Amino acid sequence: MTEQHVLVIYCGGTIGMTPSADGFVPARNFADAVQQHLPADQTLPQYTLLELDELIDSANIRCDHWLQLAGILQQNWHDYDGFVILHGTDTMAYSASMLSFLLTQQDKPVVFTGAQIPLSQPGSDGLNNLINSLHVAAYSALPEVVVCFNHRILRGNGCTKVSSTQLDAFQSPNGRELGRVHSGGTELNRERNTTLNAQTRTGLPLQCQLPTLRPEAVAIVRFYPGIQGSVIEMMAANAQAVVLQTYGLGNFPDADSKVVQALQRLQQQDIVVVNTSQCLNGGVQQSTYASGAVLNPLGVVDGQDMTLEAAFTKLHYLLATESRTDNIREKMQQDLRGELTR
């Protein structure tokens, strides 16, 4: 039996950072750092490490970085059995979500991981996360983009970062985790994977789309008491789509006529507006309350239980691949890559 071979793509992020006078910064030669910290008796799947020429602090992630990563995967897809992407945690869920939409007909695991504490520092979680992710990439046969962190395996477009300090930093707020990595191996929740497996295991080769992504195409507007209609229009000034973060089940300050008028003007400009909840769990059910139902005639799409990261990146993807806004609105309500759970 041929040994599984994994490509590890090191983007930067906390896992490989070292201290400087200005705080932790991305550091080069990560392969050497891994070898220094690996126990002598540690057994790992065979892997090759590719280090980006320009390392990225994930707070600086841009649309072109997503296309760069997708391009690397596309170029190497047939030469490896799985892939690990070492990425900063701050925007990991955004990148995992976007890659899930860019990679169609995916038949191999793409595993995002990183660390809350740099590998160079005492108490780092980086080595365990890397080892676990290598095993998931090599042996799980998950045909999707996932995040492997603190032994959890989470759907890439269904998870979000929930802690800035704890090692258990990611959760899937509206879906069960896909599995766990433990000393005995990788244990998957097969029931949770059934739908996505059926969608992706078509026998067709990987299709990787590298469309033009406009950074300004999607804006995010988080509601707060007293928000002004002018703020909404200012945020949407150069956008083709807007993600709203409203209250509870998708409720909206419908008593403020200027806020309502701002959304009416967005509708007149054919800007796609998607409603997501500020709540971590539960998602949007836009028609439950009158203050949410008022959004229906304004053409606002019910974002259901998508995470903010999934809604944001899905809009970017659809704006770049669809020419008609009615098609975009329709597909925002369809489950394309497991991003919707109901």
Automatic annotation (TrEMBL):
GO biological process, one term: aspartate family amino acid metabolic process
All copies of domain L-asparaginase N-terminal, residue ranges: 5-192
Residue span(s) of domain Asparaginase/glutaminase C-terminal: 218-332
Keyword Hydrolase part of the UniProt annotation: yes
Pfam families for the chain: Asparaginase, Asparaginase_C
Principal EC category: hydrolase
Cited SMART domains: Asparaginase
EC number: 3.5.1.1
Chain residues that bind substrate: 58, 89-90
Record family assignment: Belongs to the asparaginase 1 family.
Protein name: asparaginase
Species in which this protein is naturally found: Bacterioplanes sanyensis
Lineage of origin: Bacteria, Pseudomonadati, Pseudomonadota, Gammaproteobacteria, Oceanospirillales
